[in-house]
Amino acid sequence: MYSKNHDPGAGDGPPPSRFKASGLRSRHLAAHVVVAVWVVLALLAASTQQTLPVARWLAIHLFLLGAATTAIVVWSEHFAVAMLHAPLPDRRWSNARLAGLNTGVAGVLTGVWADLPVLTGAGCVLLVTAVGAHLGVLVRMGRGALGGRLAPIADYYRAAAAALIIGAVLGWLLATGKAGPGHYTGLKLAHVHVTLLGWIGLPVLGTLFMLWPTVLGVRMAENTTRLARRVLALTGGGLLTAVAGLTAGWRPAAVLGIAGYTVGVAVAAQLFARTVRRRPAISAAAAWMLAAAAGWLVVGVVVDLVVLAARPLGEIQDDIGSLVPVLLVGLVAQVLIGALTYLLPIVLASGPKERAALRAVLERGWAPRLVVLNLGIVLLALPLPGPLGTVGMLLAGAAGAAFLALALRVLVRSARGLLQDADKAGVARRPAVWGTAVGAVVTVLAVLVANSGGDTSGGTSAAGTAGAGAGTTRTVAVTLADMRIRPARVEVAAGTDLRLKVTNTDAQRHDLKVEDGPSTPMLAKGHTRVLDLGQVTEDREAWCTLPGHKAAGMTMDIVVKDDTATVSSGHEGHPSAAADSGGLDLSADFSSGWQPRTADLTPAPGGTVHKVELHAAHTTVEVAPGVKQQMWTFGGTAPGPTLHGKVGDVFEVTLVNDDPSMGHGIDFHAGSLAPDRPMRTIQPGERLVYRFRAEKAGAWLYHCSTAPMLQHMGNGMYGAVIIDPPGLKKVDHEYVLVSSELYLGTPGSTAQVTKMRQNTPDAWAFNGIANQYTQRPLNVKAGERARFWVIAAGPSDGIAFHLVGTVFDTVYKEGAYLLKPDQAGGSQVLDLATAQGGFVETTFPGAGHYAFVDHDMRHAEAGAHGMVEVSE
Ligand SMILES: [Cu+2]
User: Fold this and answer.
1) What is the 8-class DSSP label of residue 278?
2) Ligand 1 centre from 577 Cα, in Å?
3) Residue 21 — pLDDT band, cuts 50, 70, 90?
4) How far apart are the CA of 703 and the centre of ligand 1, in A?
5) Nearest-CA neighbor of 697 among 649, 733, 739?
6) How much distance in Å is there from the Cα of 629 to the middle of ligand 1?
7) Which residues contact 246 (CB under 8 A, 6 or more apart)?
8) What is the spatial distance between Cα 461 and Cα 468, in angstroms, rounded to a whole number?
């Protein structure tokens, strides 16, 4: 079929085969050398996966964006010419497109590797421009061409080019963090699907309609044209639906789209199966490899469909991610190897004799290679323990390297032929080229082998999480999830030996790299590694190295503070150093961007059943001006969210333990039930449903039910449940103030626990933050009526709530009114023992600044202080 085309670059007279033209041959040769170089680089990157986290990304993109894209652009243009019976496009422009494409790819890869977003963007623009031009050529080719029964196949290449453009734009959004953490998951899934199933899958599928019968040496089935059109409608349309659905985060559309794609692949596979005849194929090696590749495509899309259908998008990233190597090796690498085994001899040979010789080289040992490759893929695909996965990678890598060696040999042989054609002097360059090729392959294998055993050494760094008793060692628990590193900021005194206990609680993999310091390997969900930073003397940054994750906000600041007052409490073994609150400057400014916690009571939601999900976790909070402290939280805040309802309402609280390091439970004072099951401690990752009916009105405490409760409550695990008494009148303002003590320092450290036991808090607080309403007062107007719900969360101290300059005309304490407005007396203080609650009401007589305090002055002067600013 190739000889049908007239080649304007072929010189005088129609050549017997246009590939004989040395210009075209050398062009294809050059293109394949470029492909081979990308593959070698990809193998090198893959072999360093354990040591360089970005290497996995780099390996995949070197292979798909470098090698596969170059091959697809070269071959799709080539096949489109053949199938449309179109004239060859201008060679110089073809070369320019290819050069632009490769430069763009190099720019994107270097940009991500070196973290240069501008370069990534420029590379992306160049890449999209080159592929756009390629698409333009394919479209124009269709217009002027005679067409043929294979013409629909060119549509696959057009659709594929469009898919790469979409994929590149999505990839750019991801790599530069423009996607933002909220859309990251959906965009990433869309990117993976549009590139793998669109850019790679569609041209492979389209080409197989023609290549499969050609390789088998049989006539094409009669209905191929019709079926090819139908398959493209199913796969292309399905993919578009799926990508739109994934981008929008709407799973049903994604499932529907991939179902369409799967049906399309099944229709094509059925046609290919029917094409098989009982006669020897022209190249049995190529035929088997293509068949195996098509098989992996079927496996890939079916698994993808099942995963998409079964689980929410946020949870499947890792599952889809593990499909990538399978499709990469099983489909793409195998199709490349199969197609090249058949096509390279046709392209490169100048006659039937040479073609047979080249084919013999490429098919050498093909059956064992096929078995080894696919065995490797099976090991990679199955969820097997680490060493077997490594074996799979080694097997697949060995099979790939073996073909690469054979292909290089053929290319070198052909290049030598070209050189001899061009320059009759015929300097034999074989030894030099061979030496380089063998060197590259040996290097790859050596690095692969070296890395396969290196995995065990990583385990040692996970040992020893305790501070070893050294006075200045501090271990900070760090979690990676939702495109965030928590805490986002760690403050230490200069010279502290800092250890980060890094846990990934996310469905997708992350790592943590410390500037000029150590980094964790890729951590799967639930995996933990300890990073020992040694003595920290200057500020450093840490981040997740996965492309796009840092830009999307996965960063952490390690800040060295000389101010020992707020920090030394974090040290083990110095309980007295900062035990008094004298070190806190409560009149200092809060950090810029700090927001007070609202004191407004949110109106009770409608309905009588309130469903709430509370996540137990660690959160770093600015608990006093300029003082950040790791808190143990319900729902990310301390106090946790306030629940509000009326008598008879049912609360269905789902507690989820997101804390990777310890168990938590919950106890709602507002309900009465047997504590045994609902108040039990749940372990990291577990959840429990706590259902209670609020039979009685009141201001109730809830808190963690796990021992030691002093620590769990003292570190922030408490909150309020407000159940309105029947007939409660509406007022102008309704506030909730939960009072508590603050204990600074590493949660759970000896120093902090000692302060809790001795009841020597660093500060007292309303709603978790010392003096927050002193600096950001509550605002009311003169004459307005306000209700203050107060709960004493402790863990140890009660409160004497007083509002300077007012008299309470209403006092409701522990389930009953002590005072109502129609009574003659007034009230000055709402006294609450630890865990009690109630409310008071008052009206503000005129404009001014009314402080509210815990009238225990030790507490008021150390943070239990706020302000109501009354305006006219
Ligand atoms: Cu707890």
Assistant:
1) S
2) 27
3) very low
4) 8
5) 649
6) 16
7) 186, 187, 189, 190, 193, 254, 313
8) 15
Q: 201 and 324 in contact (C-beta within 8 Å)?
A: no
pLDDT at 145: 56
Question: What is the pLDDT confidence band of residue 438, given thresholds at 50, 70 and 90?
Answer: low
CA–CA dist 253, 259 (Å, integer): 10
- CA–centroid distance, 688 to ligand 1, in Å, is 14
Distance 725 CA to ligand 1 centre (A): 30
Q: Identify the residue with better confidence: 484 or 572.
A: 484
Contact 245, 252 (CB under 8 A): yes
Q: How far apart are CA 139 and CA 395, in angstroms?
A: 41
CA dist 641 and 173 (Å) reads 34
Q: Are 104 and 130 in contact (CB under 8 A)?
A: yes
Q: How far is CA 173 from CA 143, 166, 480, 645, in A?
A: 34, 11, 21, 43
What pLDDT is stored for residue 236 in this prediction? 92
Helix (H) or strand (E) holding 398: helix 386-422
d(CA 178, CA 174): 6
Ligand 1 center to residue 661 CA distance, Å? 11
Any idea which of 43-47, 143-147, 205-209, 842-846 has the lowest mean pLDDT? 143-147
Q: Do 317 and 249 contact (CB within 8 A), yes or no?
A: no
Residue 427 clears pLDDT 70, i.e. is over it: no
Strands 643-646 and 718-724 turn out to be parallel
DSSP 218-242: -PPPTTHHHHHHHHHHHHHHHHHHH
- Report the candidate in 29, 19, 77 with the shortest Cα–Cα distance to residue 412: 29
Return the pLDDT at 29. Answer: 64
Q: Residue 576: pLDDT above 70?
A: no
Q: Which two tokens stand for residue 808?
A: 């309470």
Per-residue burial over 254-285, b if 16 or more Cβ lie within 10 Å, else e, is bbbbbbbbbbbbebbbebbeebeeeeebebeb
pLDDT for 590 beyond 60: yes
User: How many angstroms separate the alpha carbon of residue 711 from the centre of ligand 1?
Assistant: 8
Report yes or no on whether pTM surpasses 0.85. Answer: no
DSSP run (H or E) holding 799: strand 799-803
State the distance from the centre of ligand 1 to the C-alpha of 260, rounded, in angstroms: 48
Question: Positive or negative, the Cα torsion across 356, 357, 362, 363?
Answer: positive
Distance from residue 718's CA to the centre of ligand 1 (Å): 9
Number of other CB atoms surrounding residue 646 within 10 Å: 15
* pLDDT score recorded for residue 410: 81
How many angstroms does the Cα of residue 665 sit away from the middle of ligand 1?
Answer: 6
